[in-house]
Design a protein that fits this description.
There is one protein chain. Helix content is about 50%, strand content about 10%. It has four domains: about 120 residues, GMP Synthetase, Chain A, domain 3 (2-Layer Sandwich), CATH 3.30.300.180; about 150 residues, P-loop containing nucleotide triphosphate hydrolases (Rossmann fold, 3-Layer(aba) Sandwich); about 70 residues, Orthogonal Bundle (Helicase, Ruva Protein, domain 3), CATH 1.10.8; about 90 residues, DnaA protein, C-terminal DNA-binding domain (Chromosomal Replication Initiator Protein Dnaa, Chain: A, Orthogonal Bundle). The longest helix is centred in the last third of the chain and has 17 residues. It is built from 20 helices and nine strands. The protein is an alpha/beta fold. The structure holds adenosine-5'-diphosphate and magnesium ion.
C-alpha cells in the first residue's frame, strides 16, 4: 500500500521534495485502514503535516478508501537531542500503552489543528546539556541593597519558571557585578526544583555562532529554531551583543515569541538597560520590557565584606578581619576585581610564604587601584601631548598660531574633554587661559580632521595609546 502511495505522491510533487521528505519514511504496519509510518524526527513530522498533508491524504484515500487513517511513529534523534529512539505515546485508556499517536484525517477540514493534539507536552523529553556552573548558585550570591530586586526576582522566577509576570526577566548592570552569576543561579535552582525541566544557558556570542553555523549548513535554520523552542527555561547572557545582528535578532524574536506564548521562561542579561541598547530592533526591545528589568549595582561595603568572606571561606583560607576590611574599603566598583584581589593575595602569600598581612594586602590593592583607574588629569594630558610633538608645555599653552602647535593644543583639549570630568571652561583655563568656546571648537576640529586627514588620525591614535592604561 505504501509503495502505491509513494508512486502517486512522486508523480505529484518535486523530485527534491520527494527525496527529502518521503524516501526516509519507513512504513511500519497496516491495521484496519490505519497505516503507521515511521519518521525520523518531530521536526520531520511537523514538516510533513505542514506541507504535504493534502497529498498524503489523497494518496491514502486512493489506496485505502475514505476511512483511511495515518499514524506516525516519531523517532527522536538529531544532533541536538538524545540518541534514544522513542515512540510518542498517547495516554489513552482504550489503547495499548505503546501504540503510536493516532492522527485521524478529519474528513472535511485539514488544518493546523491536526498537529496540535499530536504534540503532547512532556512526552517528548530530550536531554539538553544545561551549561550551568553549579558554583554560581544562590547560596554563593551574597545579598545586598545593590542586588536585592534582581536576586529576589530571580528567586521568584526559579521557583515558578514561566509562572510569574517576570517574563522575560532582564538583569542588567555594569561589568563584574554578578549578572552571569545570578543568571546561572536561577538555572541551577530550577534544575534543583524541577529536574524534568529543560534549562539552557547560552552566551549571546555562542547563540550567534550557532545560528551562523545552522544557516550555513544546508539550511538547518529550522532545526536551530526548533531546538531552542523546546527549552523550558532559556537563559541568554549578554544580549547586548545582538546589536547589529539583524538575522540573528529575527531568529531570536521567533524563539522568544514561541517560548513566551507557551509560558516558558526567558532570562536575559545585558550591560545596558533596554532603553539604552543600540542597534536592536524595536520589536525586540519592546519585548524585553514586557517582564521585569532589574539592575545590579555596585555592592555596598557590607555586601563587599560578605562577598569576600564567602569567597575566602570557600577557598578554605583564613584572613584577618582587618585585611578583609581593608580590601572591602578600597575596591568598590566591581565584584570581579574584589575576587581578583583575593586570588592575588592567596597566590602571593603562598608563593612568598607570607602571612595575609595588611602590608601585603596594601601592595596588592595599590596595584589594582593604580592599574584599573589611573585618573587622567588635564595636566597629565598636556604633558603627554607636548612630549609626543616634542614641544614644551609653555609653547603648547602659549598664544602662538603656528599650525602644528595649534593642532597639539587642540588635541590636548580634545583628550581632556574625552578623558576627564573637567568642564569646557575648566579645560580652557588650564590650557593657556582659553574660554570654553575655544575648547568646544577644538573638539569639533579634531573630530573633523580625524575623519578627513590620515596623518592627523594617526596622531589621535598614537596619543590615545599613550594615554590608555
Ligand atoms: P557580570 O556577568 O555582571 O560581568 P559576573 O556574574 O561574572 O559579572 O560576576 C563576577 C564575579 O563576581 C563572579 O565570580 C561572581 O561569582 C562574583 N559575584 C558577583 N556578584 C556577587 C555576589 N552578590 N555575591 C557573590 N559573588 C558575586
Ligand atoms: Mg557576564
Amino acid at each position: 500500500v505504501w509503495a502505491a502511495c509513494l508512486e502517486f505522491i512522486k508523480d505529484n510533487i518535486t523530485p527534491v521534495g520527494f527525496k527529502t521528505w518521503f524516501e526516509p519514511i519507513v512504513p511500519v504496519k497496516l491495521e484496519g485502514g490505519a497505516l503507521t509510518i515511521q519518521v525520523p524526527s518531530k521536526f520531520f513530522f511537523e514538516f510533513l503535516e505542514e506541507n504535504y498533508v493534502k497529498i498524503l491524504r489523497s494518496a491514502l484515500v486512493r489506496e485505502l478508501g475514505k476511512e483511511a487513517r495515518l499514524l506516525y511513529d516519531v523517532r527522536l534523534e538529531n544532533s541536538y537531542s538524545s540518541k534514544v529512539p522513542q515512540t510518542v505515546k498517547i495516554p489513552s485508556s482504550n489503547r495499548a500503552p505503546m501504540q503510536p499517536q493516532n492522527v485521524n484525517f478529519p474528513s472535511k477540514n485539514i488544518s493546523r489543528e491536526v498537529k496540535n493534539p499530536f504534540i503532547i507536552p512532556g512526552l517528548q523529553k530530550v536531554k539538553v546539556e544545561s551549561n550551568l556552573n553549579p558554583n554560581y548558585c544562590f547560596e554563593n550570591f551574597m545579598e545586598g541593597e545593590s542586588n536585592r530586586l534582581g536576586r529576589s526576582a530571580g528567586m521568584a522566577v526559579a521557583n515558578k519558571p514561566g509562572g510569574t509576570s517576570f517574563n522575560p526577566l532582564m538583569i542588567y548592570g555594569g561589568v563584574g557585578l554578578g549578572k552571569t552569576h545570578l543568571a546561572h543561579a536561577i538555572g541551577v535552582q530550577v534544575k534543583d526544583k524541577y529536574p524534568d525541566k529543560t534549562v539552557l544557558y547560552v552566551s549571546t556570542e555562542k547563540f550567534i555562532q550557532q545560528y551562523g553555523d545552522a544557516v550555513l549548513k544546508n539550511n538547518n535554520r529550522n532545526d536551530f529554531l526548533h531546538f531552542y523552542q523546546m527549552i523550558d527555561v532559556l537563559i541568554v547572557d549578554d544580549i547586548q551583543f545582538l546589536s547589529g545582528k539583524t538575522k540573528t535578532q529575527d531568529a531570536f524574536f521567533q524563539i522568544f515569541n514561541e517560548l513566551h506564548q507557551n509560558g516558558k521562561q526567558v532570562i536575559l542579561t545585558s550591560d545596558k538597560a533596554p532603553v539604552d541598547m543600540q542597534d536592536i530592533e524595536q520589536r525586540l526591545l519592546s519585548r524585553f520590557k514586557w517582564g521585569l528589568s532589574a539592575e545590579l549595582q555596585a555592592p555596598d561595603y557590607e555586601t563587599r565584606i560578605n562577598i569576600l568572606k564567602n569567597r575566602l571561606y570557600r577557598d578554605g583560607v583564613e584572613v584577618p578581619e582587618e585585611v578583609i576590611e581593608f580590601i572591602a574599603k578600597h575596591i568598590k566598583t566591581n565584584v570581579r576585581e574584589l575576587e581578583g584581589v583575593v586570588t592575588s593575595l592567596i597566590a602571593q602569600s603562598a608563593f612568598n610564604k607570607k602571612e595575609f598581612s595588611l602590608t601585603l594586602a596594601k601592595t596588592i590593592v595599590d596595584k589594582f587601584v593604580k592599574n584599573t583607574k589611573k585618573e587622567v588629569s588635564v595636566d597629565y594630558i598636556q604633558k603627554v601631548v607636548s612630549k609626543y610633538f616634542e614641544i614644551d608645555l609653555a609653547t603648547l599653552q602659549s598664544k602662538t598660531r603656528k599650525r602644528h602647535i595649534v593642532q597639539a593644543r587642540q588635541l590636548a583639549m580634545y583628550f581632556s574633554k574625552k578623558l576627564t570630568k573637567s568642564s569646557l571652561a575648566s579645560i580652557g583655563s588650564q590650557i593657556g587661559k582659553r574660554d570654553h568656546a575655544t575648547v568646544l571648537h577644538a573638539c569639533k576640529t579634531v573630530d573633523n580632521l580625524t575623519a578627513t586627514d590620515k596623518q592627523f588620525k594617526k596622531y589621535v591614535e598614537d596619543i590615545s595609546k599613550k594615554l590608555s592604561f
